[in-house]
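Hey,

Quick one before I head out. I ran the complex with 3-methyl-2-oxobutanoic acid overnight. Inputs first:
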Amino acid sequence: MSTTTPVSTNTTHASRRKVTTLAFRQKKERGEPVTMLTAYDYPTALAMDKAGVDSILVGDSLAMVVLGYENTLPVTMEEMLHHARAVARGAKTALLIGDMPFMSYQVSVEEAVRNAGRFLQQGGMDAVKLEGGRERADAVRAIVGTGIPVMGHLGLTPQSVHQLGGFRAQGKTASAAKRLLEDAQILEETGAFGIVLESVPARLAEYISKQISIPTIGIGAGAGCDGQVLVTHDLLGLFERFTPKFVKQYANFHEEMNKAFLEYIDDVETKRFPAPEHTVEMTDEEWAAFQKEIK
Ligand code: KIV
C-alpha cells in the first residue's frame, strides 16, 4: 500500500472538463497514462468521478462481481443498460464506456450497431467496448460509422472463456503474439479509439502500444501500455471468489463489510442500537394528548 495518500481532486472537480476520446489520444501523445476503472452503480461512479479518473467502464464483469455468475456470458443488454444509467447519473466528467455483452454484437453487424446505439441513447454512455479483433472488424467499422466511439478488447477476452479453455493469459507464443499485433492494427484501421489488452505478456503489450497510434489500456499487461484499467471490486477487495495475480488490492472492503455487519447484529441483539440519538421523539404535551385520545 502507498505510504502517501493522494489528495482528492475534489476542489478542482467542478471545473474539470468532460473527458473525450480525443483526450485519450492526446494523453498517449504526451506520454501521460490514461486511468480507467469499472463501475456498476451510482455511489461508486460518483466517488470515482470526484477522484478524477479519466474513464469509467461499465464492464460486463458486472455478471461476476455484482450479479454472482460464474463468468460474463449470462449478463444481458437490459441488465447492462440498467447499471449504465446508474453510473451515468453519478459521473459527469469521466468518459463513460458501456461494455457490449455476449451476443449483443456477434450475430450481425446490424444488431451490433443497434445495441451500441442503445448504450448511448438509453444508457447515458459516451462510447462502447467490444471483444475481438479481425472477426469484429465489420462491426467496429459500422458502429464507428454511425458516430459511436468504439474501444476494442484483445488478449484474454472473457466472453470466449470456453474457446480459450479458461481465464488464461494470451499471446505467449510467437504466432499468437503476431496475431495479436495484427488484430490491434486492424482495430486501429477500423477506427477504434483505444484497445484494452488483457492478460498478455508485458513486452508484447509494450511493443503493440508503440506500433499503433491509439492508446492501449492494460489489465495484466504490464506498465508499457498507455493506460491501466482494473475491475473495481478486485481493487477494493470486494470480490471474494478469486483475485487475479495482476491485481493490486488497495482495500479490503469485504472484510470491512463483514466487521460492520457483525457489529450491527451485536448492537441490535444487545440493544445498544438504536440509541436515543437515533430515535425520533414527540413532546410530552402531544404524548399526554395521545393518551387522552385513546382512553
Ligand atoms: O468487463 C470488464 O470489467 C472488462 C475489463 C476487465 C477491462 O472488460
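The two ends are 65 Å apart (CA to CA).

Talk tomorrow,
K.
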